[in-house]
Fold each of these.
Amino acid sequence: MEKIMLNGEYFMIKLVEASDDESESQSGRITLIKFNMTKWIRQLSRMPNISIFLKRLKHENVITEAHMSDIENEYSYGSQMEKLILIIQQSADSTSIYRFCKELRNMHPQLADLLENKNTDGKETDEYLRNVEQEFVLEFLRNTLIECLNCHIPCDEIHIALEEDLHGHVEFSALKTYFPQIFSNSTFVEGDKSFRDVTWKSPPHKEANEKVDMLSMTLDDFSTHIGDIMGQEIKPELRDCFQKAIYEEAITANIFEEMKSSQLKEVFAEYLGSINYGKGMEHVLKKLQQEIRENKLRSGIKTNIRLQQLREFDQPSNNLAYYQGAIVKPQTGNLLVPVHEFRTLIAPNKHWIAKETLRFLAACMNSRKNGTMHFGIRRDGDGCGTIEGIGMFNSKEVDEEISKCIKKCFYGEHLPFVMSCIREMQVISVRDCEHVVYEIDVIPSSLYSIKEIIPLRFPPKGPHVEVIFIYEHHSLCEIAMGSPILSDIEKICTLRLQERGIIESKVNGCLIDTSELRTTLISTLTGKDSKYITDEYIPIIVSGNMNGHVGVRNDIGMATAFSSAKFVLDFDASPDLRKSVENDKSLFTVKTAEDCLDKSQIENSSNPVWIYCNGNTEISQPRMNLKAWTKSRLAGVKCCLDTIRMSIPKGRARILFLLYCELTDREPLFDLARDMLASAFQDECIIVTQSADNCKELRNDVARRVGDNEMDRCILIGPDWKFLSDVVRSVFRPTSNDVCKLPSSSQAIVVEMTSRERTDLKLTDIDIVSGEECVIEAERMSEKELQENEHEHQRRFYKGSGTSWWNFYYHDHVGKRNCYKRHLGKVNKILKSKRGEQFLETHEIKHHPGAGGSTLGMHLIWHLSQFKETPENAFRCCVVKQISENTSLQIDRVRNFKDVENAKPIIILVDNKSEDAVILLRSKLHELAYKTGTPGKLFGLIILISRCPIAKDKNQLADDHILTHSLKGKEIVWFDKKYKELEDKTGIDVKTLIAFNVMRNSFDEKYIMELTTNILKDVTDLEKEVLTNLALISSYENDHPIPQSVFDKMMNKPQEIDNLIKVPFGIAHTRKELQMLTFNRTVWNMNVSVAMDLLIARRVSDQNIGGISIISQPLARAIVLSLMLERNQRLEDIVNSILDLLGQHAHEANPMSKIFVKIVCSLFKTRQIEEIDNRETRLKFSDLVFDLEKQETESPRQTVLHTMSRCFDITKDAMVGQQLARYNIYIKEFAEAEKAIQRSLAIKPDNSYLLDTYGQIFKAHMEHVL
């Protein structure tokens, strides 16, 4: 920013010193624009879609690839814009600056007006660029062409040469306009493919092959080649003469090679007119004949070597290599057996490859025929070919050129289908030479083909003609639009599409289940490496109007998707869809658009909210037309969307638009969807439909605002709603048991609790453990699915991502701790006791963080809850997720469910909850047990899991009292046995199971430090920023995962494209396009390095919000120590970094940010319990405060005050203010203590803890004075 400001001062001085004439000159205008770039830099820095802007500037050659890469490496959009402006100010010429303004105007006209200091809609800029273009084209024509009677040059050759000289794009219409100004005698008639009466001064440089294969050329190519040779080696006038002679006499390469000297003279002299057939011509023709003979001989020797198997269709080339001279004989068959086109080029270049690829692509799509285009294989006839290879190209540039031509030549509505059909280029090396073969596959699957024939504007360069390409009897045919046979061809292609669908449905039983379409849809919906949408996103469903299509409603079988969504916005007034999803259960909070005007109606719901946006016939609210809806319901729906946006961080929503029929601009959903796609939820929306026509109008409208690519990647099209429902359903996590089985006091009876009953009980604070947990889900799985499920849960458990009931279902995932039998014995003793001294008993398990206390508690619950064929021995068990005033009532409902008389005691697992919350739960349960329990009979048992700090003296507490990190005896044997078992299993790298290995080594500090140091070597610098913050928090608060969205801004960088290249998006998505297509489409934590992924665990918080933490507390501390040493940081620096991040989230309304704020505040508030003389007392301050105070700095106490004050200032958390006051009391700063507590009381004036602290200030002050 400082450099930009200095530049601004420099340009201001130049403007002030300039005369009036200089100010009005082009240089003065450029200086003014550069000055305005500095003046309006802050406005420019707020511009969204900067990645698209950079891509357009790169396309117009305003910036280079290196510039673009340098800019994208900047952290924020603002920094990126600042870097861009510096580059433009320092290195851009006048033309580039005007191009910058033009592209800026295309995206943001108001910003362009500010830069140009004019309100003329960019007319002066356009005029300047037109003049520059005109001068360049005229200069190019003067320098490269000369007049030559009876000569001609193809239009696309001149067009390509012009663009390569310019290093940019020029419309052919401009070339056509300026051409007569230089060559007035030259003729060009509309529809011609050549400019007449001109030729090259010197032919443009072409990278020819070492051996030109004339035998494989078509008649057209051969005639052009001979004409070019004669024109180049003798004189330009001969070019057209020989080309016309070869073509009209139908002389192929084989025929030409056999012609005698007298025959050559007889044929060609007739076409020369007044030009004599001389010795020079005969010599060149004889030389060409000799080349053909040598080529024949060369081919004859090599074709006897071997037959070559072609690359498997639609598969990567991997390490495949072809043998030069080998013969290939492709198979023939039905529409799924690919047709093969072989090309060897005279002068291979990216433009030629792109042109041939488009022709082939269109023909395969229209013929519904799979196909492969081979560049570098000579065509021999009878469908065979000879491998020769061509020179190496920059495949990235070729891919970009093909992509550019596809967008230019195909119409916008066809682009999604075209891009779905074509695969990326495969490069196969040729052995014993430096040549390669380029291959491109085309797969026009019936799943995403359209019924009509697809035309294109061809060729990509030169004058366009709208044509249709098609395969007929294995020959590629060109048909002009308007041809009388076109209607017959359309009928044939429609029948072929039906035929292809039938063939595909028979392949492998059902192609749909294994099709690439399904893979692509799932990948787009979930993102990279995620199985379910809810792993990383919060789903919202927008369901369109069904217009009474009952068949569509019957095909929609995705109840799991609807019930997993946080909101469903339904634009159909019928309640039938919701009722079919609920299936007689009450799953949703049902509201209407009118209800949403009161935000509290939808903000405070614990259930998913189903909002009828345009009427609800169930309560006699009819649908409205657009005008009435806008007046009566639009405000409510917009209010609802504002609430959704506020509750979900940017980039973390996944909006699914389900369009069942055509959506037009006369529908209320149209305007709403347009705003969501282009603005409020840009990059977070996906349209799911069975026909492109359903969203055609919406797609074209939004594409004008965000671009074709941005829009097309939002649209997923399937063959029908049964298929789409199956795909969508598969990306939502299956719901738990439909029926929860519970024991009862009657030994022979098992009580079943349905999902509806569970919903009616409103069990928001607890999870019930079924007596047959996981059994119903397991019975629904195939053997393969069971194995995959076991592998996944085992990997997650041993990696440190938490324990699930599946780990106990599979028996051998969890090893029994030495203390397991002792704890189980004590629990059984309590349950069997008949003393009746207590209504409520508590069994406490104390553990060091990460030592396995939570797993031990779940192990006990599993043993006590599961029927194991003896339900009479089981107890009703539940796990407390969160503690509120109503938690005890929910527990009582489960205890008495269908078993009011003589109910068995309920077992309650409470894992690492705060001391105040546990006291509240106990008191409420005691009160309830006293009121409703049976005298002399146990009401319930709490298994309390308590985390204890690791004592400074490790021998302070024996294993009998606390579960520590040390393994002993049978535990070590079990871990060693499991390690060997995992080593023998394929597909498991035991070294990556960090939690398992750390536990196996008894949390040895030296082992953890070495492990951490080695892993951190492969963590990126940006990831280390996240790790530093995350590790420090996990060092003190490892029980509470941090929502991933907290780090979104910090990690908002371009993604690694190498991994995305493999995704089946098609060739049109080249490396550069993937960078744009995937921008903000996936979240950062889906693309972390392997090393970072080893250190973090993904867990779910009490509020069912996903988050991450370091696998264990000792590992977190090792990471903090390693990074502090590496970066020469102090603990204070990391804490301040966390507080900087806290400042970004303190005022956010979404629950993820609120969780983060709460966790950071707890770092200053949570005081550990210490046991002294068998008495438990709380430490004076939190562990973080103690550690900050121990720093070897000049004033560690000032550091504590500074960090605590910052946290209090940012969060306004009254209890942080209390701790600040207490610390000031501790250091005898009574005036500051009084200020802090007064600020806290202003926030919570009636809080007894704060009032007590206020009194303690005066007490301590008095004691100090006395």
Amino acid sequence: MEVLGSIFGEIGGYLVKAIKRRFGYCIHYHRNVETLKKQVQILEATRKDVEASTNTTKRNGEVIRNEVQNWTSTADGALSEATKFLQAVEEVRFLDFISRYRLGRKAAKKAMAIEKLKKDGEFDRVANHASPPGVLSMPSQDFVIFESTRNAMEKIMEALKDEGTNFIGIHGMGGIGKTTIVKDIAKKVEQEKLFDAVVMAVVSQTISVKRIQEQIAEMLGLDFKQTISEEGRASLLHTRLKNENKTLVILDDIWVRLDLAIIGIPFGNGHIGCKIMITTRRRQVCNVMASRIESTKIIQLDVLAEQESWFLLKRNAGDVIESSPTMNSVAKDICKECGGLPLAIVTVGRAMRGRDLEEWKEAALELKKAQPVNIEGMDDDVYKCLKLSYDYLKNKETKFIFLFCCLFPEDYDIPMEDLVRYGIGLGIFEDVRIQEARNRARFIVNNLKESCLFLTSNEEDCVKMHDVVRDVAKSITSDMYFVKVGGEKFEEWPNIENLKRYTALSIMQNQIPEYPASWDFPNLQTLLLRENRNSQLAMPEGVLKGMKTLELFDHSGSYSHYPFFVYPFYGNLEPTLSHLTNLRTLILQNYRVGDTTALGGLKSLEILSFKGSIFTEPANAISKLTSLKLLDLEECSHHSHMDSILPSNVISRLSRVQELYMWMMSPRRLFSVKPFMSFNITELKPLARLTAFTMMIVNFENIPEGFCFPDLEVFKISIGDGGDFIAKQNYLNLCGLVEDQKMLAITRLGCIKPLLPRTNYLSLSSMEGLRNIFPQLISDRDSLAVLRSLNISSCSELEYLIDAEEWEIPPTTQQQQGTCLVCLETLSVSNLKALEALCKGELPYEISLSMTKLKLLRFYQCSKLSNVFASLNPQLQLKELEVLHVGYCNALEYIFGKKEDAPPCLRELKLDCLMRLKRIYKCSTDLLDLCNLEVLQINRCNELKVILPASAAQRLGKLKELHLDNCYQLEAFLAKQQEGEETIENLVFSQLRMLSLVDLPNLTGFCTDYTLTFKWPSLEKVEVVRCPKMQMFVAVVASDEDSSMPKLKMIKVDGVDIMLEGTDINRVMQGRYKDKVLVTDH
């Protein structure tokens, strides 16, 4: 009895708890609903933060992690369901006991699930590094393969394919084309997949082990994870290279023996599969680096033959060299002086292009009388030809920029913006606005590229010099420039008297010796002390005092690889700066800035950059810089005891300023202090010359009513949350959300209207009362004429992008047709609950060109969207559309409603979580043409039973990837042929490489039509996961299966790799099914 009593007591306790819980759902019904609302708001905020982070990492070229993508998708689904639930609750007027219980219980469970989702969304990182760039991403030079070149390349390819050769040395004089050839070889072997990995690093005359290691690591996608020591990096690199069976390591421009072990390159017996290929000007370098003679191949590059040289000269100088016997004779003399060296021929040819006979004669005389210069490893012919190319540059500006670039280290990516800011400081660009100087610098650099004196850089908006060209520039400036850069040996300063003659002094990426007590530099105009290992080394007061003529001073620290501004700040502001009264450009980036009083005396200063610096005191003295034209405070921060970097009314006093940069490259929410929190935007009003401005503004409440931004040429402005922190030029982010709840009315957007005609990137979110963009927000048909990207989200009342019925457009002639959205390439709309279509009504002729350049179209969480292409003709308006993504649009029942709905250039179609989607097409499939489609991905579309009929599938000739995932009712990809349809016997998916079928519980096969046979000549990968009813792949497999799927050697079924080895693919699927049945019976 006691036992029974105990049991009944426990049961009673459970019953009481259960009853209390159920009554609790009723009693706390309203509280549960309110809790759910709050959790939804919190999750929406987290979702926006994650999206902002993913947008930033995408811009950085990183790849979003799968768990983040899965979380985002799950969060969107949960938010969508919760929003629907809350809307349904609001519509219920009377609740009985059962309804209160049911809805209260659902609200509580959803709130708990969303709270968990929010915690799951707290990611340490949202992305992985993108696939390494590889040699295919290297910029290609203009490369002509001559017979002599072809012979050398064939020898190199033979050595690379020879298992017994593990070291290949390529030598030849400077300018003969070694680097160009090995880059072409590298691309060829990577395309032919001769090696598992192909990497390349430039060594240069001054060896930097760290730089070589970083170049190789980048191509391998290896992250050193802040490994500081040389040995640590070498160990990581050694391990990574040994993981590859066959690796080709190319080391370009080696001058002395390089110890591969120090770098971390396994070689010889250390890793038989690792081949080394080097380029050098010295054969002896090849000899000393080779491990064994029998496994070494040394190849010399010879000069071009006479006919080859003539062809190359003609290609670069033009047909004019054969215009007359006299010109022909003079040109042949010049060609002979070039000595068969490609670099010499190309640069001379480009220099002489378009010149008359007398200039050709003068050039021939100059080449003949040119004095040889003793530059190690350089042929005299190369020097005199490059010197001639320099002499024939058209103006002083171009000559100056060319020579000035030798102040940077060898193989350095020289930022264009540095050349602009330096050039202004040195008076190269006089009496022009900064933007005009920028355009002028770009024009000069392009001319130098066309002259083959400059090279294209891998880095955006940068330029490079060939090492041979740089050597010539250094030789020309040897009496003017003192240069110790890139690790060149520099242990003590030269004699002070010897330094007096120099106009420029450059020490970069080096170790600065201790400064003397005083200096006398009567002619010095340029002082570059940047990116040095000891930039914080103090300068005695007498050093800067002796530089009265200095116009340009750059004393910047190195940029850090640490994330989010964790910089090792360098130096302190030197009090003796006040002596530099002629200074026009001052660059102090990644600096620790305290008392700025010394700046106040720099009355000639025009360019001032503190980018990436930390301020320990307010920058009061900036207000005294009355000549200032550019102020760069991007990425700056300040100590927590300060309110702002800039006190009030500092900016408003800079009446001559043209460009003002205050952007933050990292999310502000990671900072405890905001550097421009107290900045009053109205301080821009007195700046009549302002043409460029960047800033992140907390929200619209920081912008007073009636304020308008000036008519800027260049801008990056983010108001409110959700900005893209590495946004491109002429970007606007406008978020009306204030304190995570209140949305501002669209009337507040008047402040940005002057910027719209030049806006390239526009992001618009959380604006109250916004029904359409045109004409409610913008009525001028030319306002967004240059817009390239438009992102609209969380505007709950937005119904259309363009309401043509509401828009009263003034008539135009054909010559005056409107430019509304004619440059738009990307359009993304998300979380727009009222959106019905992009356009309402037919677009009139005046705006019929809208969206004709659109490349990407994305719909997300648009619950009322029932027609993707309503009122549009994709054959006309969307004729360049390449990518279409549609997700969580639950009113959609089809994608293509009529034959014109298939954009002719569509190559990627992704459909996700379209719960009412019954078919891809509504129109007759005989007319549906997706002939350029390459990627088709369909996830969680549970009403779909088949994807396409065979009649449409035969027009999928370019399809390369097919992914079907979580479509519960899907029975087959292709439907059986129906009576009345066009009869097809054979289907060839000629380019399909990958087929993925995942979580399709009702799928019976790819196609179950016995009247069809298939061929997949390119199919390499098939993955089938959790498709329990799939007993066959296709109903009929071609009798000669080797010709049907010649590249398919293996399929993956439920994570198990199954080798085909001649087995019918249907038998594999049937065997798998039987095995499952047997296991189940057992």
Amino acid sequence: MADSDEVSLSPTDFHARLTALHTAWKADKRTSTPSQLFGDASSIVICMGKTASSEASASFHKANALQFWLLGYEFPTTLFVLTLEGVTIVTTKKKATYLEVLKVANKTPVEILVRGKDTEENAAQFEKVKGIITGAGKKVGTIAKDASTGPFVTEWRASFSELSKEVEEVDISPALSVVMAVKDENELRSIRNASVATAHIMADYFVDTMSSILDADKKISHRALSDKIAAKIDDDKFFKAGKGGGWSKCPAGFENVQLDWNLSPTVQSGGAFDLTLRSEPDEQNLHAGVIIAAMGLRYSTYASSVARTYLVDPNKGQEAMYKLLLSVHAAVISELRDGVMGKDVYAKAISVIKASKKPELVENFLKNVGAGIGIEARDGTLVLNAKCTRVLKDGMTFSITTGFSELENSSPTDKKKDARYSLLLSDTVRVTPATQSEGFVFTKDAATDIESTSFFFNDDEEEAAKAKPAKQSNTKGTVKKDPKVGAVASSNITKTRLRGQGAQTANEEKEAARREHQKELHQKKHSEGLEKYTADTGNLNGESVKKFKRFESYKRDTQFPGKIKDLVVLVDEKNDSVVLPIMGRPVPFHINTLKNATTSQEGGFCYLRINFLSPGQGVGRKDDQPFEDPGAQFIRSLTFRSMDTGRMEGVKDSITEMKKTSNRREQEKKDMEDVVEQEKLVEIRSRRPHRLDNIYVRPALESKRVGGAVEIHQNGLRYHHLGSQKVDLLFSNIKHLFFQPCVGELIVIIHVHLINPIMIGKRKTKDVQFYREATEMQFDETGNRKRKHRYGDEEEFEAEQEEKRRRSQLDKEFRNFAEKIADAGKQEGMAVDMPFRDLGFNGVPSRSSVTIQPTTDCLVQLTEPPFMVITLTDIEVVHLERVQFGLKNFDMVVIFKDFMRAPAHINTIPVEALDGVKDWLDSVDIPYSEGPLNLNWATIMKTVIADPHTFFVDGGWSFLNTETDSEGSEEEEEESAFEDEDEEAGSESESDESEFDDDASAEASEGSGSEDEEGEDWDEMEKKAARKDREGGLVDEEKKVSSKSKGGKRR
């Protein structure tokens, strides 16, 4: 089990997977056929013993695999009893404290029995468990080949043996394999990370290391080379992307601390091959011939494996055998689709061999083509051989292995070591839906083609040796050309005519794979929308009716101001009312019934006009003032005349100010609706709390720039301001915790994003940031202080080194404090998230251009306020606007799953970041689309909210891609219509284009070239185009272009 400080169980994942197990169990019970996987068991008993050694701790079998699957951790000395009604766990006191979180209301009941030192009490617990087993039914499911050992297991087996006459044991291993075989999204992501890391070591480290050793003719044993490869797992830089590392294909959110070896690196050569990969590397030296390398990494306990065969100076026979193996391997992968039976996959491999020129090689082929892989490195109940009757399902993962053993070499270089050889290929592959042509290979980055796996080192020597005796011979007038001549230079002969064509092909393949993945994501999102929003959903806004508001100025006549006797216009700010003299009586009006007040001068009199709210008069853009009887008669205005202009102006100003105050109060009330009152902070009294001094907070508590300190308490954080003010942040209200180092920035940051907003001073905020500047105030770059005494580059170099040390120390201090915050809030599931600067891009989310960076769970901008934190799980789709040739920038629109939430806009992103943004969105499984124009999202979201069911039935978000395609086709048609224009029209178009900025749209340039054509008037064409844009919910792009171009001509 992991260190106790790191154990954090997820009740949600536990109950979700337990429900999946119960569902499969119940479905199997209903079949009542002899092929029942669960064997009609009424209970399942899984006993995990004590981990005896480091080797045992690294092994994975059905017992601890089920624990990892349900809990995410291994719990030794623990007994699990599962029934269809509940779960009973027998474990020690310390482990029981971690398991308590599994007790969730309205979920499957979980009972925990705590073992102690009392032997009688422990025995009574086992008796209670046996009673649960017998009460459930006559059959109990156990693991037939259980590898668990230890005193706890021995004690349980002795107690359980007393039930041998009452209950029947059935092997539950195949059933557990079925339940755990289909991986969910998080499991597939872990297997992907493990696979790409394994392929990274194989392709980018092992191949280079091996070829360098052979090229330099060095001697190294198989064991030494294997150990050298195994040590690479500790190279942090090797598993990082961007400037800090050398891995260009590093997945988003990858953490190399999660890596561990599943299959330790194994290197074989020199004729001694074990294709089962069970033997340890020997002490024989690496031999330049056929070399087999295999390895496999784990990521978050999920395994992967890859094996490759490398041919050094191969002959034609060996190349032919390898090409046959490649075809067999590809045929097997092509069969890994939903609905295919396991034995059919093996039969496909045999059929390819029998159809080849050497069908007798069936005898040399492996007896299976792989097995299931996941938490277990090899699922013994899911082996793809001739007898496998399991049906493959979408989401299963396999370690596909094909190979030939004991092949004869017709022309060996070394008769002792090269006379016989073997070939082996292995990949980690996911089963795909039946509609796809083949399975998805996670380890494809480790190339298998013969050009990538063949090496030639001795061709120059052989060519010279063969050419010399040939020239001395008088019997032959010509030299027989060696078939391998030129093999050394073959790497310099490209398959394409142009240098950049190879990279272009790779980009096209990458784009095709990305497009296919996006197609799957959009289909999945559409099906989720149809499932979520049924025909009964209706309008998401609901049908709430605005209520008539009654305003009361005075409850009793005694509350009237004393000046009402004068029968003048009186403003009573205390009661938010205006008292007007009407027909010799003072009549009060509440300020909320008034619209405004105006004054005008005429004939020596000042006229005060007071306008009232009435039906048909909108308040701003909305009519928020409903009326009890809109059909009644209303007074719209009252006018008063006076010769005292100063008084009338004063009354008007007082009414206006009171109206503003009332509106402000109403707005503040609305803004405060989502502000919740936090619980009280529980301070730490037993010791001094962890504290970080000399920091600043944003938003600031006052206008002056004054620092403070932040402390970690039992249930939250407390910021102490030097002005004796305090800000409390409870762990239960923290949604995300970020740490941003000062690399490339002027400040180092700890940022807290809240679930519910809080008040800091008079501001409502959901983001609180603690920061410290990374610059040294004592350092003066103007030439004073230190430079008075020293000159030259030495002082500059020393200052740079000091700056690096200071920044490194700051990052370390803030990171350690952020981790302490996460440890203190681990019960709330808190973890430190860190932006990936290498994946960042510039954009304008609010007012200015800033660097926007992805994290593991979010897309953030933490440098300048207003801050931006977008949780990835809240995103429905992303649409990229203004993506078209000729524009330097594009925009990003984030649509949230909560359709009532306004879409987030990130504008003016440089077009150079487009591919990076697409790659990141695709890697985190967010569906995106792109189009050439800006859309009117207010109108679109109103349509979606009004009837989401109809929206998804009509195609959902597919209209975003449809508009992109149709727009492109329209532009092609327009371009083709102008191909026959004369040269003068073309020159006019070019001169007109120069009047616009580079960001001008294609429509502007096309329109300028058609001015002299006969047909519709230009104004009519503009109106027609604008009408079409409004009908499609589009914003007129030409308005934006013209507004940009008014700033001046392009220089």
